[in-house]
Amino acid sequence: MSNIFAHRGSSGKYPENTMLAFKKAEKTGCYGIELDVQMSKDRECFVIHDETVNRTTNGRGYIKDKTLKEIKKFSIKSGWLKKERIPLLDEVLEWAQHNSLIINIELKNDKIRYEGMEELVVQKVAKFNLEERVIFSTFNLQSVRKLKELTNSEVAALYSKKGTNPLLLAQSTGADAIHANQRVMTEKLMKDCQQNGVPVRLYTLNKPVAIEKWIQAGLNGVITDYPELAEQLKKKRAVKA
Question: Which residues have a catalytic role annotated?
């Protein structure tokens, strides 16, 4: 049965990549959460999808050009949530020690090649003793290989380009799993991976028809903005079975 991952937390209803979204996701009973990591000027790991703070906060500029102190002053854009801030990865990992969620950490180092990001993130996970509950993922294939050298945690290769063979991608990078855009995956490609011991997880599955289709097909992981909906559809499918 497919495992449900809350994409940037329960981001369909709450501000993405915030502690609120992660806590709300936990309450849905989902298997895990997915989050994104960028690095600040003073080498702090912040949980935010974009390279800049422009879209999701009241601030402007690149994460890489700002310090922890500067970033912590920004508020998440949400009319009724004036106190929500960009969380540090440390804050999320500390919170994760008190639940059983699997944490999918996506390193956003494909556009900006943050020097030493892999080592830093792996060290933080080890600090909180969460190695067995973390999946690392990245679009940066060089980074996939580096992570495989640094950690025993699961490492997934991300891709979104049509024509890519996911099994060959996993084999060429040493990735343990494949995380792909739903638009570039077929059931045959998924089965090829699974038959060779490579689990497949797809993003971002939000429509009931798509979620039901892939759960029925035997997808390993549904990455969705609506974990509560996905869990309900999963349970409905289990009852029918």
Answer: 7, 49
